[in-house]
Inverse folding.
C-alpha cells in the first residue's frame, strides 16, 4: 500500500465504527470460492450454440439483427478456460484486451452474456474474482490470466474498479431466478464493501478513485478532484443491491444495515454534489466546491437510486441538449460544451462507451423513463450498425459526432451490452423476470418485433408481435413451461396472460413508440 493510502486509511474510522457485529461476522466467513477446484469444462462455440441463443425479431431494423449476431460471434471467441496455474475456478468471458482480465469489464460482459444460459454459465466469470479476494477484502481490478496474480499498474491506488458485483449478481438473479449462489456471494460482497469503506472513503464520507481505477483513464475531471461522484454513487448502488441480496436469503439485519448505508450515502451525494443552479452532479475539489465539469458520470446517481424526480428531470434536460450530451451518437463521456471535448471521440474525452451507456439507459429505465431509454439505445445501435457495415466489426468505443469506431477492434468485450442486452430489454422491451415467474413485454416498434427462444429461468419463451394495423396487432406467445406474460401495449393498463405449454395468440389494441 502506498504511503498516501496508508495515511488515508489511518485517518478513517475503523470497521467497528458503525458496523454491527453481525455484518463483521458475515464479512469474515471463510471464502468458499478459494476452496473450489476447477473442473475442466469445454467452452461452447458460436456455431454450435447459435440455435440455442435468443433470436431477436426486428423487421424494421434488420441491421440491428446483424449487429446482434456479430456481437455474439465475437463474444464466443472470448470465452475461456482457466489456465492450470491461475487459481481461477470457472470458465469465463474475457475482454480479450490484453493478457489480463478486468473487473468492471467482466461485470458489464455478464450483463449480456447471461442470455447464453445454459450454453454458457456467464455468472461464473465473477467467481474468479471472488476466488482472488484478499483476506482484507481487496479485489484487484486487473488479474493476469496466465498466473492469476494481481496486476498493479501505476501503483496500488489505481487498482480499484467500480464496485459493481452486487448489481450484476442481482440482475443475473432476475433473469435466471437462481438465488442459490447468494449465500456464498454475500460474504464476499460485504467484505469488499468493507475494504472500500476503509480505503476509498474520504473523511467527509464521500469516496474517491483515480482515472485508471475508475476506468475513465484520461477523462477531463479536475487535477484537484478530491471526492468522486461516480465512485460514491457506485458504492451507494453497491449497498442498495447488497441489501436486496441479503433480503432474498433472510438476512434481515444485513439488509437493514446496507439500506441505511445507501440512505446515508444518498444524502451525502445530494447535499454535497448536487448543484441546483446548473441541475447536475459534480465531483468535488479539496475545498468542497464542485468542479463544474459535466461528464456522463454525473448520471450514476440515477442508477444508484439517489436522484429525486426533480433532479432526474434536470439531468434529462442535459441529456437531451444537443450542445451537451445529445450528439450524433449518444452518450458522450464528456459534455460537448466542456473544454477538452473531442468530436472524433478520442478515448474518454468525448467518446461513447458501452459501460456508461448501459448505466444511463438502466438508470432511466429504473425511474420509469422507458421510452427515453429506448431512444438512447436506438441512436446508439444505429451508429454501431453503420460502423459495422463500414468496418466489418465492433469497436471499444465510438465517436460522438460521426460514425466511427475507435480503440480495440472486435471488442466484445463490453461492447456487446448494446447489441444484445439493450436490444432485448430496451428496444424490444422484453424483461425476463424468472425471480417472479414472469416476462414483462412492451412492444414499441411498428413492424413485426419480438424474440424467440428466450430462456427465463427454466422456461423457453417466444414472443412476437405482428405489425401494427390501424391501432391493433396480433401477439403470439409460446412457452414450454408455465409462466406469466405482462404486456404493456401502450394503450390502457398492462394485460397479463398465464401461459402453459404451447402457443397463445391474441389481438390487442396497441401503439408504437417513436424511436
Amino acid at each position: 500500500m502506498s504511503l498516501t493510502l496508508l495515511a488515508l486509511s489511518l485517518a478513517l474510522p475503523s470497521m467497528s465504527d458503525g458496523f454491527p457485529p453481525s455484518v463483521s461476522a458475515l464479512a469474515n466467513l471463510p471464502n468458499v470460492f478459494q476452496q473450489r477446484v476447477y473442473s475442466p469444462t469445454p467452452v461452447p462455440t458460436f456455431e454450435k450454440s447459435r440455435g440455442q441463443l435468443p433470436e431477436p425479431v426486428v423487421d424494421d431494423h434488420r441491421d440491428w439483427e446483424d449487429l446482434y449476431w456479430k456481437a455474439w460471434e465475437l463474444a464466443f471467441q472470448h470465452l475461456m478456460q482457466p489456465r492450470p496455474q491461475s487459481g481461477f475456478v470457472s470458465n469465463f468471458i474475457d475482454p480479450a484486451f490484453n493478457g489480463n482480465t478486468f473487473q468492471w469489464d467482466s461485470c458489464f460482459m455478464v450483463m449480456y452474456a447471461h442470455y447464453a444460459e445454459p450454453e454458457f454459465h456467464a455468472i461464473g466469470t465473477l467467481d474468479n474474482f471472488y476466488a482472488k479476494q484478499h483476506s482484507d477484502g481487496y479485489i484487484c481490478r486487473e488479474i493476469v490470466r496466465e498466473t492469476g496474480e494481481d496486476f498493479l499498474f501505476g501503483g496500488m491506488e489505481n487498482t480499484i474498479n467500480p464496485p459493481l458485483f452486487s448489481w450484476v449478481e442481482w440482475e443475473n438473479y432476475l433473469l435466471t431466478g437462481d438465488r442459490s449462489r447468494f449465500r456464498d456471494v454475500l460474504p464476499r460482497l460485504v467484505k469488499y464493501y468493507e475494504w472500500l469503506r476503509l480505503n476509498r472513503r474520504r473523511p467527509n464520507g464521500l469516496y474517491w478513485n483515480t482515472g485508471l481505477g475508475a476506468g475513465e483513464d484520461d477523462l477531463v475531471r479536475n487535477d484537484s478532484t478530491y471526492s468522486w461522484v461516480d465512485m460514491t454513487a457506485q458504492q451507494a448502488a453497491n449497498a442498495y443491491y447488497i441489501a436486496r441480496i441479503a433480503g432474498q436469503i433472510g438476512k434481515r439485519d444485513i439488509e437493514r444495515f446496507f439500506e441505511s448505508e445507501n440512505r446515508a450515502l444518498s444524502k451525502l451525494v445530494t447535499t454535497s454534489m448536487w448543484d441546483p443552479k446548473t441541475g447536475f452532479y459534480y465531483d468535488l475539489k479539496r475545498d468542497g466546491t464542485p468542479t463544474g465539469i459535466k461528464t456522463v458520470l454525473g448520471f450514476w446517481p440515477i442508477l444508484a437510486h439517489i436522484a429525486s424526480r426533480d433532479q432526474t428531470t434536470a439531468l434529462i434536460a442535459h441529456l437531451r441538449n444537443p450542445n451537451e450530451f445529445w450528439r450524433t451518437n449518444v452518450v458522450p463521456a464528456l459534455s460537448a460544451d466542456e473544454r477538452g471535448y473531442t468530436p472524433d471521440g478520442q478515448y474518454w474525452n468525448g467518446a461513447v462507451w458501452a459501460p456508461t451507456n448501459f448505466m444511463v439507459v438502466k438508470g432511466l429505465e429504473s425511474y420509469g423513463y422507458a421510452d427515453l431509454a429506448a431512444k438512447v439505445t436506438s441512436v446508439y445501435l444505429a451508429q454501431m450498425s453503420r460502423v459495422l457495415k463500414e468496418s466489418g466489426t465492433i469497436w471499444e468505443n465510438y465517436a460522438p459526432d460521426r460514425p466511427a469506431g475507435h480503440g480495440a477492434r472486435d471488442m466484445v468485450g463490453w461492447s456487446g451490452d448494446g447489441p444484445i442486452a439493450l436490444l432485448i430489454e430496451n428496444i424490444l422491451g422484453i424483461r425476463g423476470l424468472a425471480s417472479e415467474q414472469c416476462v414483462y413485454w412492451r412492444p414499441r416498434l411498428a413492424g413485426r418485433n419480438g424474440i424467440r427462444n428466450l430462456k427465463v429461468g427454466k422456461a423457453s419463451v417466444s414472443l412476437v408481435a405482428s405489425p401494427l394495423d390501424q391501432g391493433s396487432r396480433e401477439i403470439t406467445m409460446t412457452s414450454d413451461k408455465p409462466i406469466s406474460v405482462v404486456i404493456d401495449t401502450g394503450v390502457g393498463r398492462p394485460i397479463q396472460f398465464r401461459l402453459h405449454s404451447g402457443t397463445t395468440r391474441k389481438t390487442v389494441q396497441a401503439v408504437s413508440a417513436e424511436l
The chain has a mean pLDDT of 94. The radius of gyration is 22 Å. Residues 334-427 form one domain.
